[in-house]
Write a structure and sequence with these properties.
With about 325 residues, the protein is α/β, with parallel strands linked by helices. It has 13 helices and 11 strands. Bound molecules: phosphoric acid mono(formamide)ester. Phosphoric acid mono(formamide)ester binds near residues 32, 125, 275 and 276.
């Protein structure tokens, strides 16, 4: 798919999606994902329809056997089957509820759509963000001349005033390990470790490539010798549902901001972030506006990797 995305980026165009339609269910806001899927479908002759349940589309219930006497007007079993009659692909963005990770980690919304749909379903960010990780890897391959193997990839937690989704962090860790990078996860303490499902997947990929995944809470050690710094903020999983208890700890961690001094410790590393990014909270202006920053290239690549995903799933 990355090779295909590269060809698409180089200008390969056609009408392969003529007569094809994509249904995009957005339970959360988006700039890049929504725009790039809509434009990507159109560039190859197809169309996309965006639906925001509860805001212009009916609110949806998910539980099997539920008595629907609340706010929800229809069940995912009807939604997914009806959209499957109209569309050739369904995309779903559904962030965790951030109340109980044991429930959120089941990825209930995405799985419910997939259970009832009769067309392929794409994850547009739930508890992982596969489209983002492909765009990141395409950008890394471009910047490292195709040679990402063995490069030191640092995923650093950064401060944000709110607890955010772990999806991008999970995906970044896995794709870097899968492609043979030497991965370091820098986070403030053990509370900010990612779900073992993703840590273990990354470790298994790294081992298969003769590499390692190192976890550290030491900022200097993490940045030292890095070839790539990827920043993301996320909520500490043990504090899901009781964020008021996490806040005092989080508020002491503003020094995890990515700044020029930290970037100087690296081996001339590139920097990126999935965006949106809060300037001078997560990353300084100086880093975001430096030639090392490849966040806009990564964002552009969303368009091309998504066309490659759609081709894989819609064109026989
Ligand atoms: N990175 C990303 O998924 O951006 P959006 O939330 O704007 O879609």
């Amino acid at each position: 798919m990355l090779d295909d995305a590269r060809s698409l980026k180089a200008g390969l165009r056609g009408n392969e999606f003529e007569g094809k339609t994509l249904g995009l269910l957005f339970f959360n806001p988006s700039l890049r994902t929504r725009t790039s899927f809509e434009i990507g479908a159109r560039q190859l002759g197809g169309a996309a329809v965006v639906l925001e349940p509860g805001k212009g589309a009916w609110p949806i219930a998910f539980d099997p056997g539920v008595v629907m006497d609340g706010d929800e007007e229809e069940h995912i079993s009807e939604v997914a089957r009806v959209l499957s009659r109209y569309c050739d692909l369904i995309g779903v963005r559904a962030f965790p509820k951030f109340a109980d990770w044991s429930k959120d980690r089941e990825d209930r919304v995405l799985r419910a759509v997939a259970e009832y749909a009769t067309v392929p379903v794409i994850n547009l960010e739930t508890i992982s963000h596969p489209c983002q990780e492909l765009a990141l890897m395409l950008a890394l391959q471009e910047k490292f001349g195709g040679q990402v193997d063995g490069k030191k990839f640092v995923l650093t937690w950064t401060y944000h005033p709110k607890p955010l989704n772990t999806a991008v962090a999970n995906s970044a860790l896995m794709i870097a390990a899968k492609f043979g990078m030497d991965v370091t996860l820098l986070c403030p303490n053990e509370e900010y470790l990612l779900d073992p499902r993703y840590m273990d997947a990354a470790r298994a990929s790294a081992a298969a490539n003769g590499r390692t995944v190192t976890v550290t809470h030491d900022i200097d050690a993490a940045y030292r010798g890095a070839n790539m710094v990827y920043a993301k903020s996320w909520g500490a999983i043990p504090y899901f549902g009781r964020w008021q208890d996490e806040k005092p700890m989080r508020d002491t961690l503003k020094h995890f901001i990515v700044d020029e001094a930290k970037m100087k410790k690296t081996d001339g590393a590139f920097f990126s972030h999935c965006l949106p990014v809060r300037r001078n909270v997560k990353v300084t202006d100086a880093v975001l506006d430096s030639p090392a920053c490849i966040a806009i290239d990564e964002a552009e690549n969303r368009l091309h990797v998504q066309k490659a995903i759609m081709r894989r799933l819609m064109v026989p």
